[in-house]
Amino acid sequence: MQHDATAPTPPDLFTWEFATDPYPAYAWLREHSPVHRTELPSGVEAWLVTRYADARQALADQRLSKNPAHHSEAAHGRGKVGIPGERGANLMTHLLNIDPPDHTRLRRLVAKAFTPRRVAEFAPRVQELTDRLIDGFAGRGEADLIHEFAFPLPIYAICDLLGVPAEDQDDFRDWAGNMLRHPGGRPPGPGGGQAGGPRGGVARSVKKMRAYLADLIHRKRADLGDDLISGLIRASDHGEHLTESEAAAMAFILLFAGFETTVNLIGNGMYALLRDPGQRHRLQQALAAGDTALLATGVEELLRYDGPVELATWRFATEPVTIGGQRIAAGDPVLVVLAAADRDPERFADPDALDLSRRDNKHLGYGHGIHYCLGAPLARLEGQTALATLLTRLPDLRLAAEPADLRWRGGLIMRGLRTLPVEFTPE
Ligand code: HEM
């Protein structure tokens, strides 16, 4: 049963129902307890910031550090606040874990290599990858869009962009699947997938990915190309370069930050379109007429309506701060709930409605402030290409499961489906 926005008591968070549809609970929080202290499933206590204005302010507040060392529980070795398996893996010094001035230096260097122009030039390759994946199931009349499409597309795209040779990219698909305990890796067995199950699989996969990236960076240094890893090695700012370990951490965070997010953009976005025939037909008509304006505003709206990142990554108060009238003690973790902020009626007209042509749409799906998503141009390219190609090639695509039977992944930071079964007339 969904939580009633007028109920006097706080909703249960992090239950199965909440994972399926968190929006009624977020409406309650925005209304009654907009900066809400709660115990997370890991046992860590954190503040949830749910109103748009407070969320935007918190994302830009430099007194909220990204460095987990500021967590009051860090000193006691409690609190699980990182990427699974990254601890001790020497990949910790990445953009989402550091503050200025280190963040400013690293972000400036990576921005020199990961430019909007590089992404624009990558568009034909994303189209090719998209078509190749759809070719794999278009003749069958049914597919699981997460497993066969949304999951592999971003991993192959980022591997290509970074310069991971084609013959090694399936290993990345397996490691990424293992790291996220996601069923999207190749099935275990001869020639594909990894045995060993989820336990230990995460750490092992992070270790393998790290070793591979370190070795690749080392090889590229001796033989620079046009790829992003070569760009990261070449990038310099006032005579400063990335060290090899910084370049490895950077490649890793690009993979990690750009992977599950994009899987969920495609999965949640397609799911929302399949459940709203009016909006979906409008988009199909615009695409058939060669008009891509609705695709561009539409993908932004899908990010606002049911975005991939439910809660922004961790922040920790470095001194007492007040957000939305609530005092937060130094050392307390703060989680900005992007999904709640982006449905705030104080900011968005008719926030629970999907309106692909919404123009006043400064959503927080890519964050805000100095940690604003570095990969937004790539995510937009992949999201737009994926949705437009699916809807054009398979025009009568329909859900092959009841919405109530679909399972959501239920992780803390991300929001995404485990599977998205569809049917369509075979090509
Ligand atoms: C940061 C969302 C795709 C790379 C962020 C943040 C959000 C976000 C909300 C800020 C987190 C915070 O402040 O705590 C998304 C969404 C995506 C997406 C919704 C897909 C639809 C990508 C892609 C890449 C990428 C494709 C790269 C290949 C990054 C990086 C950061 C970041 C490196 C850290 C930036 C910094 O700390 O300065 N993203 N992201 N993201 N994203 Fe994305």
TrEMBL record:
Pfam families: p450 (PF00067). Residues 64-84, 182-201 are annotated as: Disordered. CDD domains: CYP107-like. It comes from Streptomyces pathocidini. Residues 191-200 have a biased composition (Gly residues). PANTHER family: CYTOCHROME P450 YJIB-RELATED (PTHR46696:SF1), P450, PUTATIVE (EUROFUNG)-RELATED (PTHR46696). This is Cytochrome P450. Belongs to the cytochrome P450 family.
